[in-house]
Every structure is written in structure tokens, then in C-alpha cells.
Amino acid sequence: MLKEITTSQNIVRYNGQSFFEEEDEIAVETALTIILDGDEFATMVCTPSELQELVVGFLASEGVIRFYQDIKSLHIDEEKGFAYVELVNKHNIQKDLHSKRFIGSCCGKGRQFYFHNDMKTAKTVMTKLTVTPEQCRDLMKKMQESSSHFQQTGGVHNAALCTSDGIVISRTDIGRHNALDKLFGYCIMNRIPLKDKIIAFSGRISSEVLLKAAKIGVGIILSKSAPTNLALNLAEELGITAVGFIRGNGFNVYTHQKRIQGIEYDRSSEVLVSRFP
Length: 277
Known about the structure:
Largest sheet: 6 strands, mixed
Helix content: 25-40%
Number of strands: 14
CATH topology of the largest domain: Cytidine Deaminase, domain 2
Number of helices: 8
Structural class: alpha+beta
Order of helices and strands: EEEEHEEHHHHEEHEHEHEEEE
Oligomer: single chain
Strand content: 25-35%
CATH class of the largest domain: Alpha Beta
CATH architecture of the largest domain: 3-Layer(aba) Sandwich
């Protein structure tokens, strides 16, 4: 039996003048534990939807699998909150590498990562895709309009895989990382090419979110919120265009600005010489 992803509850609302009672929609939160080749691997707190995509995307993000065919079997017991995964080649779980914070360098460039598996799975993105300012604003608007669960509850994050012209697939979860893992899982399960894709995202661009985008292989990430400085350092090194604060008619372009059409540089000095309207 599938779990509901929203539930209703009677609340007391204040409208600035008086109190009144009404029914409100609340986002459902559940725990899902992955049992990998018979061993407990990880527990995620998530929205109980698209759980197969979530598990596949999470395992790929963690470097456990590269292809959907690496999974021999996958069974999800939603009632008990377990996902049982058996791999074609049994995984040697190194629990210390998946639980301890790791900051190191890569390729002699001083790149910083949180975990050991990030060094294995994060990759530099080389896409030549460009987008217009209008497309950035339109994709963010379409992503927000596509989430009925956010409109009902206000308690979830949204992520959408897009082309420059529209949304390919969108996913919702209480966890922003989970929403991205669901997109990753969908791409792996359906062999979606990613060189011409964009991610539109509702939350802030943290270093973890930026690494998720790099692992997926998408070169442009759009957000209505702010980035962190570590996220921008990683975006610069990993070749990702980070665009934030997409609200109304404006936005900020933080890294690899040349993918946004209308920004022009003096090639000899790399100095910005004109801006889009």
C-alpha cells in the first residue's frame, strides 16, 4: 500500500485580525533505510514518493553504482521503511568513508570535498549549452508552477531537469538532496542524456547541492535562493554555471557567466563590457 505524501490536520490560523479554525495540508515525512547486499548502508528522511528513483540516484551519487544494470534486484517495503538492494557485484562497504567528513585535494588544484566518495563521483562539466535570461526566468516559473505539493503544503523542495525550452521531469521531496537524487535516479533508469540539460531548484545552492549537480553531470543550475561561498568555489572548479535569486525579472550569475547569453567580455582582459537588459 502506497503511503500518502500529504496529510490533513485541523489548525488555528491568524489572519492579522482574528483567529479561525480550518483544515491544512501537511507534508508527510518518513524514514527509508537502504539494506545493501544484506548490510545496513544508509537511512534517509524523505517524502514517500518515487522511492525507487531516490534509491538509485542516491547509490549513484555515493559512487556505489554507475549504471542501473549494476543493480541485480531492488525491493522497497514502504510499510516498514526499508529498501533492499542486491548488486550484480557485491559492494565492499567502507562505512568509515561514507560517514566521516573528508577534506582533501584533487588533481593538485586544492579542490575541497566533504566525503571520500565525492572525489570519486564529482566530475568537471564541459557542456557548451547556453541559455537566455528569459529562459532562466521561464524555467524557474515553470518549476514552481509544476509542484502542486508545494502549493498545498509549503513544506517541500522542488527540483526539475530541464532543457532550455522546458521541463523534462520534476521531483518533490522534504529533503533538497533527495529531490536531486530522484532526478539522478530517473536519468540513470531511463538513460537520459545530460549534456544539454539544466537543473532548476527551489532551495539554496549549498556545496552539497552543487556536488549533486556535478555528479549528475549538468552544467547549469538555477535557483530562486542564494549560494554559499564553498558552493561557488566548487562551481568554479567543476565548470558549473550557478544562477541564484531568480525572482521577478532579475537574477544573479555567480560562476561561468559565459553560458548566459547577453553577457559579453573583452577576450583579452576577461573584463565584463556589457550586460543583458
